Amino acid sequence: MVARTSRRTQAERREQTGSALLRAAAELVVEGGVQALTLARVGERAGYSRGIVTHHFGSKKALVDALAKASQSGFVPEAPHEPGLDRLLHLIDGYIAALGGLRTMSRAFLLLWAEATTSPDLAETFRERDEHFRTDLRADVAAGVAAGTIRADLDPHDVAVAVLGQLRGIGLQHQLDPAAVPTERLRRVVADQWRRALVPTP
Questions:
Q1: Among 157, 104, 109, 102, which Cα is nearest to 131's?
Q2: Are 2 and 16 in contact (CB under 8 A)?
Q3: Among 3, 79, 90, 131, fewest CB within 10 Å belongs to which?
Q4: Which residues bind DNA (predicted)?
Q5: Cα–Cα distance between 26 and 108 in angstroms, integer?
Q6: pLDDT, position 74
Q7: Among residues 34, 58, 82, which one ends one of the domains?
Q8: Residue 119 buriedness (CB in 10 A; 0-12 / 13-18 / 19+)
């Protein structure tokens, strides 16, 4: 019984350390881009040694992979609906709403995503994250088509690419000039645009 308690405490400590390291990595990215991200600087920022960072992640690429996965989750709202039109519109609305209160982790994700277009080291990770997102979007469109709530002449892949491109683009605009991107108004405008574009004409 004592051994199980000890293992649980060790696991909790490891999780806490990992979270602190990812927060430190996100802060460095926001402050100086991916070039500012080194294992030594992450450890120093988080109050640990470089050895702890290496022990947790093994390499800078693995650290960036973990940061990409952890930071992307800040944009995607919990989906209370089954796959289909309602879930798709909920995701669009929630993603843009989240931009209004961007945390450091989410800002780091957008910066890394933009940098991935010119960095082979980052490209693979962010292609994977985008494909994961497109997969969910395609599932919503396909389910909507099957249910008759989304036009049957639309290709799920094309819609997924367009939605993801718009959301990422709005996110980057907000990063550059928050005052020019009023998220509370825009979230409803964009969701309504997609509703009108996707719903079959009576």
A1: 157
A2: no
A3: 3
A4: 38-57
A5: 5
A6: 62
A7: 58
A8: middle
Q: What integer is the mean pLDDT of 133-139?
A: 95
Q: Which domain covers residue 172, as residue numbers?
A: 72-198
Question: Cβ distance 119 to 34 under 8 Å?
Answer: yes
CA distances from 95 to 25, 28, 48, 159, 181 (A): 23, 24, 33, 16, 13
Structure tokens at 114: 């933009």
pTM of the predicted structure, to 2 decimals: 0.80
CATH number of 171's domain: 1.10.357.10
Task: Pick the last residue of a domain from 32, 58, 84.
Answer: 58
Phi/psi of residue 151, each to 5°?
-55, 135
Q: Which two tokens stand for residue 100?
A: 């209004």
CA dist 99 and 94 (Å) reads 9
Residues 87 and 34 in one domain: no
